[in-house]
Design brief:
With about 200 residues, the protein is of the alpha/beta class. About 40% of the residues lie in helices and about 15% in strands. It has a single domain (about 5-190), classed as SGNH hydrolase (Rossmann fold, 3-Layer(aba) Sandwich), CATH 3.40.50.1110. Strands 2-1-3-5-7 form a five-stranded parallel beta sheet, with helices on both faces. Strands 4-6 form a two-stranded antiparallel sheet. The chain starts with a strand and ends in a 5-residue tail after the last helix.
């Protein structure tokens, strides 16, 4: 049975989509007959945390497709001028390690770009936890470059969000997408998977 794994953070897990459980579940519900979907989104995950569970949560299924959605938590800061959760160069090294581990598997990889932020609600989002659009844009660019470098597909989400009202309208808390935001992500990722399913 062909298998697709969605591995990522709380957005992949479905945070704030109380209607249909998130973009990955929405997409899983529309897979062609015979496909199995594995949900491996974990709130708060960074590239290091994904690497730590890549084998047990993804590769163990010998997936035909892995959809990787990571980066927004890596880009967060503790304090307005504090350290990043995962500095950009370390993030790039983590992505390279992901590619190294995937190299031995006949698996197609799709990388999901970052959703935009509504900084009116993320500076800070909680106590001293800051998500900035400047950082998110840098980490998103790193994802796009990484995908191109390794022959992976990349799906940009910022254009779809901008066309539909932006992060102010499409996030529940400035960070996590509303049900409409999750629907946009599902549609964009499904388009990115064209020809693989």
């Amino acid at each position: 049975m062909p298998t697709i794994v969605f591995i990522g953070d709380s957005i992949t897990e479905g945070a704030a989509d109380y209607v249909r459980g998130g973009w990955s579940r929405r997409l899983a519900a529309s897979l062609p007959p015979g496909w199995e979907a594995v949900q491996a989104g974990v709130g708060g995950d960074t590239i290091q945390l994904i690497l730590a569970r890549l084998e047990q949560d993804a590769l163990i299924y010998a997936p035909d497709i892995v959809v990787l959605a990571v980066g927004i938590n890596d880009s967060r800061r503790y304090g307005a001028n504090g350290p990043y959760e995962v500095p950009l160069e370390e993030f790039r090294r983590g992505l390279a390690e992901f590619a190294r581990r995937m190299a031995g598997h006949p698996t197609q990889v799709l990388v999901v770009g970052l959703t935009p932020l509504d900084e009116a609600r993320t500076l800070p989002i909680a106590e001293d936890l800051y998500y900035t659009q400047v950082a998110a844009t840098q980490y998103d660019a790193a994802l796009e470059h990484f995908a191109a470098q390794h022959g992976y597909r990349y799906v940009a989400l910022a254009p779809a969000f901008a066309a539909a009202g932006g992060a102010a309208a499409l996030t529940a808390d400035g960070l996590h997408p509303t049900p409409d935001g999750h629907a946009l992500i599902a549609a964009a990722v499904q388009a990115g998977l064209q020809g693989w399913l």
